[in-house]
Amino acid sequence: MKIKQANAGALTNFEVLDLLRSRGASKDPTRVMASLKPSELKVYDYLVETAACDQKRENINEFIEECKTYDLAKAEILNIINIHPTSLVEIDPIIEAGEERTVRVTELVEMINKVLLPIPSQSSSSNGRAEQDSGDDYLETEPSEMN
């Protein structure tokens, strides 16, 4: 990968992760042999735990195209891609003065969930919570059945 223009703009977490992977970063225990600095490996370790790990370039490009109808700033689009908000509560701090700008926030959240795809780590953690909750319900009903 060649740098065509230095300081062309901010990068998404996906682009940084893609760059680190192209330079040899991985979760492989032999990654010490990769030509990466320790700080780059720490960045890689962080990014593989974020939404960037599961994103695809096609989805990001489609999302950027869809955002043109919402009159969002470049920084807002970048933050949405990096943070991947899935609810109104999560997107509210990202959209600056959303009430004044007639941004259709509910519609935007639906589009984010459709185009950027759900984060697998969130769905698996919510499944774990559901299993844990059902176990707690069983424990709560057990003593009342004994009475």
From TrEMBL:
Report the protein name in the record.
DNA-directed RNA polymerase III subunit RPC9
Mostly located where? Answer: nucleus
Which parts of the sequence belong to the RNA polymerase Rpb4/RPC9 core domain? Answer: 1-122
Q: What molecular functions are annotated in GO for this chain? A: nucleotide binding
Q: Biological process (GO) annotations? A: transcription initiation at RNA polymerase III promoter
Q: Where in the cell is it found?
A: Nucleus
Looking up InterPro entries in the UniProt record yields: HRDC-like_sf, RNA_pol_Rpb4/RPC9_core, Rpb4/RPC9, Rpb4/RPC9_sf, RPC9
Disordered, as annotated region: 120-147
